[in-house]
Amino acid sequence: MRDILDDLEAGKYLSDPDPVRRAQIQMKTHLPKRFYKAASVAPAEDGFAVHLDGKPVRTPGKALLALPTERAAALVAAEFAAQGETINPVTMPVMRLVNTAIDGVASDPQAVLEDILRFASADLLCYRADAPQGLVERQDQHWDPVIDWARATLGARFNLAQGIIHVEQPRETIAVLGVHLSQRADPLRLAAIHVMTSLTGSALLALAVDFGELDTEAAWSAGHVDEDWQIEQWGQDAEAVARRSARKRDMMAAAGLLEALKG
């Protein structure tokens, strides 16, 4: 059992970061057959462990796949239970995120925190279009409330700019965000925030979801204002649709894990 799970997470079936390319690779790769009948959750010393046919699942790094709340563990168990005759890791975004958090983020949470701050220093929400007017208004509609919330609630004031020329953010602003993130340094929570940050290009949107200021759909829409505008003007091809669908699935999984960690 462990050999198969190791292969799934070691990259044998996830050998490309692009979701469409991964799917193409999978079409040529034999997926392993499902080797268990039932997935369940059981109490463990570190919270709640995921079991397959009564045996605890371990991460690729051999750590017990245990989560602090039963709801969070149930998300992973549900992904295992939903597998058909074969195991398709692409359809298990929570499991992949949890494995990353336990085996990777836990060993160096500061590196992940700093990467989120790098996104914040060039946050999507700070770079505004000067035309067309419809796009300008749409950015203002989706982004201004989040900028205002960051100032009022987080104490973080961001400088805005038109175009793509880099605008320097106040050191105090990045430091304030660093304090808020340090209070969320649990590996699972930090990993989920990082996923949402990288998928939207905005640490502010990810933090707004974590704070309960935005729901996930609103954050996803805010992170794709520019893309949606372009789609409306020019349309999109099937590959772009597939790529976006895969990214949104990962976004929803990260947000779902955040919510489940609350108990």
TrEMBL record:
SUPFAM superfamilies per UniProt: ATP12-like
Species this protein is from: Mesorhizobium qingshengii
Domain of life: Bacteria
Keywords: Chaperone, Transit peptide
Coiled coil feature spans: none
Family as reported in the entry's similarity comment: Belongs to the ATP12 family.
TM region(s), chain numbering: none
Keyword Protein biosynthesis: no
Entry keyword annotation includes Chaperone: yes
Classification of source organism: Bacteria, Pseudomonadati, Pseudomonadota, Alphaproteobacteria, Hyphomicrobiales
Pfam families reported for this sequence: ATP12
GO biological process: proton-transporting ATP synthase complex assembly
Name of protein: Chaperone required for the assembly of the F1-ATPase
